[in-house]
Amino acid sequence: MVFGPPKRRLLIFDFDETLTSMDSTSLLRDLLPVYRRPKEINELKEGRIAYLNTLFTELRAAGYSSTELRRLIAAIPPVPSIVDFIKHLHESCDPKYDIIIISDCSSIFIKDWLANHQLTECIKEIFTNPSFVVSSDGMRVEALQRAKCPLSPPNLCKRSLLERYLTKRQAMGVTYERVIFVADGVHDYCPTLVMRRDDIVCARKGKDLEKKIRCYRRKCKVRPLVLLWSTGHGLLTLLESALDCVTISSI
User: Nearest to residue 95, comparing CAs of 179, 181, 195?
Assistant: First the structure.
């Protein structure tokens, strides 16, 4: 009997509040006294990158080194059992899962967190805003893109990154029978609009992505199956049940 190559699936994760139990930016902002915190309205006016760099400047002025900030982010607890979930799928042979991260966070923080939770080898690629330590032992972040998507911030459109990645992999001879997107935030809505009917969106229960899909699913024709999850173990159970029946939505 001749066996073909194993089926391949692409598993995409957001970072903040999808892998981590809290938002990294909020954690850093709350280190400052209220009067020194950059106002959240500034993030809307000036953009996320300018907001983050202002935050990093204030944190350095308050005495926080890059080492301290990185240690704090790396130590954020994961969403319950999500680490086990990733390791389980990474070790799968048939189907084979390629696991990537697309996040509007920063490269240093994501890499530090993955290393601290022994997940570095599980992740094939990371798409996020480049960040670095500056000579004064502070931190800076740069925009990954110049996006003009009305559903995304100007520094990063997750839909375009997903499409670009799929095109690149196809040119390498890799096609995915399923794309599975695990996320929570409002800006995670954009890539769901280009996903196929046989794909799966895993929206964290009670978060903004679930609310956005509930409001706009019919109007914007979100085609993939939508699953609501809270823990890694629960997510694994949902996926195992859903992969044989992908025509019924839970929303």
Answer: 179
